[in-house]
């Protein structure tokens, strides 16, 4: 039995629990449950936590998505910098043929569209409707998609194709604080307490969590420790912190990985700086569309732009909380050669 949601929360469509297919309802009745941050009940499916509607999108996507070799997938956990990565990748791959970077006349689609509109999530925006196989013919090549799915749950055709995956993670301390603020921004009244949310996050109970397994699922695809002969050009592994501190360097590498490197001429014209300005937190946050616009789900675009900084956790977490999260990272991820 799927529970009703309290009316105090503005739920994005992909979290709403109406319109579930019968097979998803049957599956739900067999899965472990926990109290969610956004919805009453979340379900653990193959080690990761989802709302019923997300699970439906996930299964639909696994069943029907057919990858093409030149697809590009941006993979993240919620609140690790997805919006920023979408803006950067969209600008990079479309700059030559479709959307030249023009800062002055504001012609570029990012001036009038939230990045989530330009780069849809596979499981939330495309494959979310029950029993519907979406028509993707309108996507121009290379097709650019996003996902919050861990590597293991990606559609098989994606894992077996030559498509490229960019994974962006973020220090879990900042990731947690950002998620906690976001969950409360979606509430009309009341709030998730910091302590209760922190406890859940540390137990891996948040949508798409546990965070450590999510990060490791992509890390293992790139890590030399895991695969000594790894010559993997499929997954590019990025961190929010390096993107924030060394943006030009990362952007250049990202362009190369995506198969659209900067030419000497573009470098001399300062195109990299233009893309960075276009996609900067300050620019995007102050655009009309992101100040007053809404996603079709009802979420206000401004909820995606809070501070955009490294280290806001220092303003919220106690010494014990910091130690606890650091210990989790060390214990769960250290043996795989992963550290923040
Ligand atoms: P904070 O809540 O710490 O400010 P996501 O896009 O995955 O939902 O992540 C949202 C986080 O990325 C928020 O972090 C948000 O402010 C930050 N962010 C959004 N756009 C950004 C940009 N252009 N540059 C840097 N950070 C950005």
UniProtKB/TrEMBL annotation:
Coiled-coil ranges per UniProt: none
Enzyme Commission number(s): 2.8.2.-
Record's keyword annotation contains Transferase: yes
Superkingdom of this protein's organism: Eukaryota
Transferase among keywords: yes
Keywords, comma-separated and alphabetical: Transferase
Pfam (any one): Sulfotransfer_1
Domain Sulfotransferase: 69-337
Family, as annotated: Belongs to the sulfotransferase 1 family.
Protein name: Sulfotransferase
Source species of the chain: Stylosanthes scabra
């Amino acid at each position: 039995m799927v529970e009703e949601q309290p009316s105090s929360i503005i739920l994005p469509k992909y979290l709403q629990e109406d319109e579930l297919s019968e097979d998803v309802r049957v599956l739900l009745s067999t899965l472990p449950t926990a109290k969610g941050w956004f919805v009453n009940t979340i379900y653990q499916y193959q080690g990761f936590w989802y709302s019923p509607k997300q699970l439906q999108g996930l299964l639909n996507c696994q069943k029907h998505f057919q990858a093409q070799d030149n697809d590009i997938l941006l993979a993240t956990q919620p609140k690790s910098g997805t919006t920023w990565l979408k803006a950067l990748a969209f600008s990079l791959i479309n700059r030559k043929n479709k959307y030249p970077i023009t800062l002055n006349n504001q012609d570029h689609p990012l001036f009038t569209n939230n990045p989530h509109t330009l780069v849809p999530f596979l499981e939330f925006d495309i494959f979310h409707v029950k029993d519907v196989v979406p028509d993707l013919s309108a996507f121009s090549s290379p097709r650019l998609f996003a996902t919050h799915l861990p590597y293991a749950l990606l559609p098989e055709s994606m894992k077996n194709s030559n498509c490229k995956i960019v994974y962006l993670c973020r220090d879990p301390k900042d990731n947690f604080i950002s998620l906690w603020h976001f969950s409360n921004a979606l509430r009309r009244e009341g709030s998730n307490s910091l302590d209760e949310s922190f406890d859940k996050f540390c137990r891996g109970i948040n949508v798409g969590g546990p965070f450590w397994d999510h990060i490791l699922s992509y890390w293992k695809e790139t890590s030399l420790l895991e695969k000594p002969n790894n010559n993997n050009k499929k997954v590019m592994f990025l961190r929010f912190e390096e993107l924030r501190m060394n943006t030009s360097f990362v952007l250049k590498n990202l362009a190369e990985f995506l198969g659209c490197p900067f030419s000497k001429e573009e470098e001399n014209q300062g195109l990299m700086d233009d893309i960075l300005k276009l996609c900067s937190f300050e620019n995007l946050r102050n655009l009309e569309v992101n100040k007053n616009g809404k996603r079709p789900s009802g979420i206000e675009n401004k909820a995606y732009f809070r501070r955009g900084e490294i280290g806001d956790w220092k303003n919220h977490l106690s010494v014990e909380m910091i130690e606890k999260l650091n210990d989790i990272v060390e214990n769960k991820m250290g043996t795989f050669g992963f550290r923040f």
